[in-house]
Amino acid sequence: MRIAVLAAAAVMAFSSVQHAHSANVALIIDASGSMNARLADGQPRIDAAKAAISDLATKLPDETVVSLRAYGHQSPRKAKDCRDTALLVPFARAADNRNEISALSAGLQAQGYTPITHVLGLATDDLKPLAGKKSIVLVSDGTETCEGDPCVLARKLAEADAELVIHTVGFGVDDQTRRQLQCIAKAWRGEYRDAANAADLSSMLQEAVAAAEEPLVASEITVAATGPGVLAVENGQFHNVYNGETGEKVGAIGNGIGQIELPAGVYNVEFGDKLLWKSIEVVARETTTIRAAVLKIANNQFHTIIDAETGQELAEYANTQDFIALPPGRYDVTFDKALWGEIDLSEGETETLKPGGVAFVPAEFRSIFNEAGEKVAVAATGAERVMLPPGKYKVSVKGTDIPFEIRENEIVRIATK
């Protein structure tokens, strides 16, 4: 019901601006590797996004001046390209470039990183030569994966250009991404919208562009509260806190439920040496609470936590740990060379991985392969068992491949003599 109401509202709002003052609208579409993830109906996110952009192009008012920029579509993940963006369609009247927007968006391939800060900076440069109201509509399914904090940049650019507005659309996002996109939109006088599926994304895009078409209205002057605010972390371990603009360490938060008093601003909270939860806005005289996700692994092995989008190793999970606190998001976990992939962690919730295993009788040296024939683990002589993610595997015994399947929390026993 909510989606239907939103869709109807989007159509009404969109039609109401057909003859209104035209705006300059910079469309930005996420084509990073995470956009290959599938929606509940099995459709890849990137395909849904391309369809939504094409649908939007057909419905834009003729006089809207619009461009299309994409990011993450030119370089593979292994390139770690934090400058991967291109202005696919320069600014022109929608009547003149709508077909080009549809055609070029249809050819996008999702594969790379998510350099949101860099892209927003370029998009504002794209808009500078244009007169009148200027708006950016950003669609993303993930957080910044490169240097910089897009919320910090948003606050700076909003102060520098009073005619610039940004609207953000989160497409199937986790809690950390939603917070970041909300922070960007709030700083830049825009609105944040959630989209969970293809139809929803199409409606939210139309709403966002309709809002971009509306003329600027003078707002009442309000006096912001002054004084420090409080940043609190729940379910956490030990976290250093950094100023999002300068990168300077400003304090630390202890285990469990900890908090720190800070001046109003944007901060990053560290979860290990390579992992930051960015774009956390602290407001004067208010408490901002972030709730770490908790990951538990039910075995006694050593694991590496990997960013599912970038492949970057983020943290280590030692065999002596009871759990690890992480920002909400999607992760991969190593089991020797096997991978338990795409583990979705939600803010404040606990996820427990219960690997299965294989035991050889008698316990002897054996190489274990996945379905693709890649060696993913080795059973040592005398080893009681090898723990692995659920999946299909095989082992060679006397020249014959023996397939077997591992299920969660179960041990498969294979007699080799």
Question: Are there runs of 5+ residues with pLDDT below 50, and where?
Answer: 1-21
Q: Beta fraction of the residues? A: 35-45%
End-to-end distance: 61 Å
List how many beta strands DSSP finds.
Answer: 27
- Mean pLDDT, to the nearest integer, reads 90
Instruction: Give the class from helix and strand content and strand pairing.
Output: alpha/beta
Given the structure, what is the number of helices? Answer: 7
Largest sheet: 6 strands, mixed
User: Whole-number radius of gyration?
Assistant: 24 Å
Strand order of the largest sheet: 3-2-1-4-5-6
Which keywords apply here?
disordered N terminus, 417 residues, 23% helix, 4-stranded antiparallel sheet, alpha/beta, globular, 7 helices, 6-stranded mixed sheet, 27 strands, single chain
Topology:
Blueprint: H1 2-16, E1 24-30, H2 45-59, E2 65-71, E3 85-93, H3 94-106, H4 116-127, E4 134-140, H5 150-160, E5 164-171, H6 175-187, E6 192-195, H7 198-213, E7 229-236, E8 239-243, E9 249-253, E10 256-262, E11 265-270, E12 276-282, E13 287-291, E14 293-297, E15 303-307, E16 313-317, E17 324-326, E18 329-335, E19 338-345, E20 350-353, E21 356-361, E22 366-370, E23 375-379, E24 386-388, E25 391-397, E26 400-406, E27 411-415
Parallel strand pairs: 1-2, 1-4, 4-5, 5-6, 7-13, 14-20, 21-27
Antiparallel strand pairs: 2-3, 7-10, 8-9, 8-11, 11-12, 14-17, 15-16, 15-18, 18-19, 21-24, 22-23, 22-25, 25-26
Helix pairs in contact: 1-7, 2-3, 2-7, 4-5, 5-6
